[in-house]
Specification:
By secondary structure, this protein is of the alpha/beta class. The protein is built from twelve helices and eleven strands. The longest helix has 20 residues. The two termini are 21 Å apart.
């Protein structure tokens, strides 16, 4: 498999995207579970007619997201970042740098999220939280492709969270994918496209550290393998308040980002599953948030997070998205 992955990394992006579209349809037709998740998740966000119209491109882009990885990970970084043909909103990053603030970069599973880190790492120091893949043979390839130079990897455990906090305190940039289902004790239930989804709290907690700027980003695939258009945007509203309010605000911001380019979102991911051991979602639409003690935010399943501090883990470290 490693040899096949390296072979794919030598192919041009245009061919990889064509093969990816085909493989996306094969996976969609071969897996009833994946097909059901894709259709159900799309139906939550769009009406039947619009969801049906979007579906063919959703299936094709899901395959492209897999087949483009060998190129993104294994090619020279200068060559990879040369695939970024357009950039919109870079002034958001420049303003944060000018203020001397740390930057929290959030990119959901939208478009080519792996190229975001490559693009940023040639311009600034970047620490990215990641979780090793389940396939053992893929781990060294991922680390080879994502690390090196200004690109620093932080493992998805308490030591990785410490690395993120230190980077923010040094006024550097950190990045993560905020829309993956966390484990029990690592998230809370929050609205996401009109349905309760168990949502990671790490990103929301990190917004409490210092004066870090929050910037949302995604890399839109251009037609016919022509490259990518990277977008940087601020959240649509301030990320503030209790932990629950911060999580809700981030979910709304991610929803708005996805609606800009819904064809390229991974709708087939089982976003609404409940992790083993987690309490079922609340029945009320808007459960009242707890009242935190002064200077302390209580994180469910974890200890209190004092400003600038770390939670005391209970039942294991957080497992944020890769």
């Amino acid at each position: 498999m490693t040899l096949l992955f390296r072979f794919l990394g030598r192919l041009p992006l245009r061919l990889l995207h064509a093969l990816g579209a085909l493989s996306g349809w094969i996976a969609y037709l071969a897996s009833p579970t994946y097909r059901r998740h894709t259709q159900e998740n799309l139906a939550l966000a769009y009406g039947p007619a619009e969801a049906k119209a979007i579906l063919p491109e959703v299936v094709a882009h899901a395959g492209r997201s897999v087949l483009e990885l060998p190129l993104i990970w294994l090619r020279d970084r200068a060559e990879v970042t040369g695939l970024v043909k357009h950039v919109t909103g870079w002034e958001e990053v420049e303003r944060a740098l000018a203020r001397g603030e740390g930057i929290l970069i959030l990119t959901p599973h939208l478009g080519c999220f792996d190229i975001i880190g490559q693009y940023l790492a040639v311009r600034m120091k970047l620490t990215v939280l990641y979780r090793p893949p389940k396939l053992a043979w893929l781990k060294p390839l991922m680390e080879e492709g994502r690390g090196g130079g200004n690109f620093h990897l932080a493992p998805a455990d308490i030591s990785g969270v410490r690395l993120l906090l230190r980077a923010l305190k040094r006024r550097e940039a950190i990045a993560m994918l905020p829309d993956q289902v966390p484990g029990e004790g690592e998230g809370i239930w929050a609205d996401y496209f009109a349905r309760k989804a168990f949502t990671m709290t790490l990103a929301a907690r990190l917004t409490e550290v210092g004066k870090a700027s929050v910037i949302l980003t995604y890399a839109e695939r251009l037609p016919h393998g022509a490259g990518f258009h990277v977008h940087f945007l601020p959240p649509q509203s301030e990320i503030e308040g209790t932990l629950e309010q911060r999580v809700a605000s981030l979910n709304l911001a991610i929803e708005a980002l996805v609606r800009r380019c819904p064809e390229q979102y991974l709708w087939g991911y089982n976003r609404y599953k409940a992790p083993r051991g987690a309490q079922p979602p609340p029945t009320s639409a808007h459960p009242p948030p707890p009242v935190p003690r002064a200077g302390v935010t209580e994180v469910r399943g974890q200890g209190p997070l004092k400003e600038g501090g770390l939670p005391t883990p209970r039942g294991g470290p957080a497992e944020p998205p890769c």
